[in-house]
Amino acid sequence: MSITELKQEYCQQQGEFKLASTLPLHFGGLLSDVQIAWRLEGAASAPVVLVLGGISAGRNVVESDRPGWWKEIMGPGRALDTHQYRVLGIDFLGGSGMSTGPRSGQRDFPSISAFDQAEALRQLLSHLQIKCLHAVIGASYGGMVALALGERMPQLTQRLIVISAAHRAHPMATAWRSIQRSIVRFASVRGEGGEGLRLARALAMATYRSPAEFEKRFSADPVRTESGFQFPVEQYLFARGDAYAANYVPESFVCLSESIDLHRVNPSAIAVPTTLIAIREDQLVPLSDMQELHAQLAGPSELIELSSLYGHDAFLKETDALRGIFAKALA
Question: What residues are annotated to the active site?
């Protein structure tokens, strides 16, 4: 089928799928009245690729009638061309989107595992009558979910593409995230969850990028203000914290941040063909962890190492590098 014919069949679908029964959770307990918000976009007759991002990402992957969180990478004519593939995105369980998650102020929402996300996805794919995905592309937390799906439900996908995610959370990254969660919890019990989330996100931003990028962007002298000196990097971090706190639920941040640190998969049980993409400057997922995962995977796999000033956030920025990698991995 020609590209012209595929363009004529380009379509968008979305909805909220309610699971038929209560969802037993990996770490114990049950979640009832579960729904998963989803969006499917691309050529109607094309293979389906499930795309999962970090804990802030959601079902709107492609830039169309709504902002797409991976708009630089996914869409018509981009690194993953939606005239050749259909892109399926979801809102994570436990997140701030339309899928089931904690309400603002709710502190008893259960712990969520990447395996729980995978089970919800299995039921969603059955509902959408998608028997097998052409691929799962997962970055950051989404990569962890992709690995969980590959271990437990290998029949659901032909291949995995995993960016900046390993078989476990590194203890140093857990240290940073533990402090972030404590900040949010401390503020929430005082009725200031939004301020806690602002501070936690500002701290998180310092771990997403590389020291070299901060040196390049923020080495100017501080500015004296009425309350003291303000540093260029400080202004950037808190601006990002403000933007995040305006759009996300503090308790959802805590839930999915914890889910990252609870992540464990058995690489020797993953036989799905896998492409791993590691960033040498990634402070959260060290190259050594990606190398260890690669060495232990049961199926055919390839580890691609990239260098990027953007560190852990490289998957959002390195369009040209990812274009070639996707083309080869999805062929």
Answer: 140, 282, 312
